[in-house]
Amino acid sequence: MTFSELGLSNEVLQAIHDLGYENPTPIQEKSIPALLETDRDYVGLAQTGTGKTAAFGIPLLETIEPFAKTPQAIILSPTRELALQITNELKNFAKYKEGINIVTVYGGADIRKQINQLKSGAEIVVGTPGRTVDLIKRRALNLSEVNTVVLDEADEMLNMGFKDDMDTILEQTPEDKRVWLFSATMPKEVERIAKNYMTDPFKVVVGKQNSSNENIEHQYAFVKAKDFYFALKRFIDYYPDMFGMVFCKTRRDTKEVADRLMQDGYDADALHGDLSQAQRDHVMKKFRNKHLQILVATDVAARGIDVDDITHVFNYHLPEDIESYTHRSGRTARAGKKGIAISLVHPRDAYKIKQVERQINKKMKLVKVPTGEVIVEKQIYHFIDSVHNTEVDETLIDDYLPKVFKELEEFSKDEIIKKMVMAEVSKYLKAYEHARDLNAKPGKRDMEESSVKGDRRGRDANKKRIFINVGRNDGIREKGGILRFVCDASGIAGKNIGRIDLLDNMSFVDVDAEYGDRVVALNGEDFEGKTLRVEYSKGKDSSDRGGRRQTRNHRSGNRRRTRSNNSKENYNERSFF
Ligand code: AMP
């Protein structure tokens, strides 16, 4: 099928032509004509990289009334990066259309500027849920004329704790609007949105539901915890042309892995929630321009990243939330290319492989951590290959060659080849001279999928209540802010968190019992210049643990603070709730 068969205007066809798109992708083929023809709600189950932005963006642009100056469409996306990408893509398609103004709104940027942009008139608004709600509350964004709401990466938005914000936004829009929802997976929470806000939607599934991209090869290797970093390095060295991402659970691991890679001479950097927006932009720019070979990131920080040509995704740790596996691995194999996702798995976590396989609907392949010899061999052939493929432009090097020939005239051809190869790969030869075998073996019991382990995740597990010494006065405006911070910093998924109480100077977060220690491990870390105090809240668990005993455990500064607090914000939550 060609784009001209989809019933598009000449302006859009010309813009598509300029972009160099030859044919519609499967989701575009199925969605564009349908969205142009009917006013029905729509569910698109598709990963990023399938062309889904154009699948909703093109019909949206074709049905927008130009010069209306009030928002007719609101597109919600989980991250600033994705929101900007959507805007960028829409602007490309709208290049030859007049009177369609697209405004992007997202947190972490000057809100007044965004208010002014909205004031000058916008037909389409692309926003992250938190900032969108903020603008609605300030009456800077009026959604009463909206006829289309697009929820992009709905599962991600829910994962990131935007449920309440999404509800608030959807409730602000007229009853008879169209809702177009895109999601890579269809968990219960996404179904709830579909049920509550959509009527008889038509559904387009690209690839298998909840499956991952067919172009991704999923591999895993068993490695002991102490060898994770070395195993990662071996895989990186084994793939000389690798351009990849490494996912870690926590910011601390992310920083540590990136630092070690940098110290070891790799072009690597870290992306995590501790960075300012400017720092994040800087890192992303370097990565996009391929000045970095490896980007080490947390799940939250990496959401929405759309960089083409990523060849490998490494799971330094498997994600706690198995659904995140799909999002991580989906960073590779974009736009029809192939990619490899490699997970380093502790033998103790062997049972998780089956969970991932169920999620992606595909078998993962057990691979060995490459040995030193294999790496050296690969590097040598890679070098030889590049020598082979190098075109000699004599006009450029002729002037230098006489001196080079003179310098090397005492050596035979064989000697020169040996020296060249040696010079090129000596770093690997030395590094891997006495390389150990890093492959670990899981025991039989590790391999069995433990129903106890499997079922304990998520849903019904007992929650532990955790105290955190930051609250509204520390700049956290909504519960979602605490949720995102805890998820990003500890690496656990939003669904493992229950009730959140956000107070002025502190917060309480209910966390699935098994992840409690991970959150408590944030104790002592820095939060916007403040040292975090994160502890199990004892009040709820047992009535004989009164405030006195808790205060005794705290450092003296905190104790003073606790005592001087009035009852309203007393750390002993029993006295408060
Ligand atoms: P998306 O799934 O929207 O994130 O799109 C993935 C990438 O595919 C983006 O970089 C688009 O620019 C590109 N793309 C979208 N549609 C097409 C098409 N029909 N042909 C070629 N590339 C496309």
What's the quick description here?
The protein has 577 residues and is α/β, with parallel strands linked by helices. Helices cover 42% and strands 15% of the residues.
Largest sheet: 7 strands, parallel
Say what oligomer this is.
single chain
The strand order across the widest sheet is 3-4-2-5-6-1-7
Spatial gap, N to C terminus: 62 Å
Q: Bound small molecules, which ones?
A: adenosine monophosphate
In the CATH classification, which architecture of the largest domain applies? 3-Layer(aba) Sandwich
| Mean of all residue-level pLDDT scores | 84
Shape: globular
Count of strand segments: 20
- Bin the strand percentage: 15-25%
Structural class: alpha/beta
Supply Rg: 27 Å
Which consecutive residue ranges, at least 5 long each, have pLDDT under 50?
449-461, 540-577
| Number of domains as seen in the coordinates | 4
Q: What's the number of helices?
A: 26
Helix content: 40-55%
CATH class of the largest domain: Alpha Beta
The name of the CATH superfamily of the largest domain reads: P-loop containing nucleotide triphosphate hydrolases
In CATH, the topology of the largest domain is named Rossmann fold
